[in-house]
Amino acid sequence: MNKLILGVSATLLATGLFGSVSAIAQASNTQAQSGVNSTLIAQAGDQALIQQNRGLLLQNGQTARNIATKVGAAVSNSETPSGGNPLQVNQQLILQNRATFMSIAKKVGATVPNVPGPGGGDLATQNHELLLGNRQIVRAIAQKLGVQLPAPPQLSGNMVQQNNQLLLGNRNALQAIAGKVGAAVAPAQ
User: Fold this and answer.
1) Nearest-5° angle of CA 114, CA 78, CA 181?
2) H or E, element range at 60
């Protein structure tokens, strides 16, 4: 009888242990899948925001060209970049916009601070640094023209989110400048 009880106990113990191991393995697998899903969702969100940033870059560039035309600043009609890495395309647009901003600043006599060019770090970081510089140029133009702008908001989130915040701020500033000089504001892209 003792052997029977011992055998049943051993069987229950083994089944319980294997069941626990199986449950632990399933929980770990679910957590791993959840982590992967969260990462994929975040990357998809960043991709959507990168696309939105491109639209803002195009809109800001057109508004800046309209301002440049109104104030008589030279504007290059560079072709819109396309294809390839979305961050590289955005960087080309950032640099095109910077050239227009610099032309406007020169024409209106705005004092432009020394702003960094591209280089160093990954593309998102480079774009961020370029956009910080562009914000300074746009704010200098607004100041020279007597356009009152609110203080720039504190940036938050990851680099792509911060870039979006910078672009939205520039859009608002450019709209105010366009209103001051009588230039058309470009529609959303």
Assistant:
1) 65
2) helix 2-71
Asked if 166 and 136 count as a contact pair (C-beta separation under 8 A), the reply is no
Query: For the whole model, what pTM was predicted?
Result: 0.77
Instruction: Give the DSSP H or E segment for 10.
Output: helix 2-71
3-class SS of residue 159: helix
Closest CA to 133 of 149, 148, 114, 152: 114
Q: From CA 129, how far away is CA 121, in angstroms rounded?
A: 10
Q: How many CB atoms lie within 10 A of CB 29?
A: 10
Q: How far apart are CA 142 and CA 144, in angstroms?
A: 5
Give residue-wise pLDDT tens across range 56-111: 999 999 999 999 999 999 998 788 888 889 989 999 999 999 999 999 999 999 99
The residues, ordered by sequence, that sit 6+ positions from 120 with a Cβ below 8 Å of its Cβ are 126, 129
Which of 183, 109, 121 lies closest to 146, judged by CA?
A: 109
